[in-house]
Amino acid sequence: MQGLRILIVEDNPYIAIALEEMLTEQGLVIAGVAGALDDALLLAASTALDIALLDVNVGDRKIDPVAETLVARGKPFVFATGCGRAGLPEAFLDRPVVEKPFYIEEILQSLQNALDS
To answer: Ranges for the Response regulatory domain (predicted)?
Structure first.
């Protein structure tokens, strides 16, 4: 996954920073980081990216519009959530998910699964 451009959508700034550091250490390039849904929508629609890691709940809003934007662009993504599959958007129950708290190995495997499918 060296050099892949990843979009991170995470509303907790500490988790976002940790993800950014962990993924950079693994050779991924951070295409953007969004902590609010409107910023995430803009980045998902306009940023050069290969894959995205999406928090299911961004503040009090659901990630659905960002996921829909990525699907329209043909870009794979992985959900990150503390709620398990039950919290995923109905239309995207088949997408890879990592549950918080997570380990970098889980994230990397889920990203690879998303890229392979």
So the answer is: 5-115
pLDDT tens, residue by residue, 24-43: 999 999 999 999 999 999 99
CA distance 96 to 80: 9
Residue 64: CATH number of its domain:
3.40.50.2300
Does pLDDT of 47 surpass 80?
A: yes
pTM to 2 decimal places? 0.94
Interatomic CA distance for residues 77 and 110, integer angstroms:
9
The CA distance from 69 to 92, in Å, is: 13
Question: Domain tally for the chain?
Answer: 1
At 66, list the tokens: 């960002």
Sheet with strand 77-81: strands edge to edge: 29-34, 5-9, 51-55, 77-81, 97-99
DSSP secondary structure code for residue 105 in this structure:
H
Q: What is the mean pLDDT of the chain?
A: 93
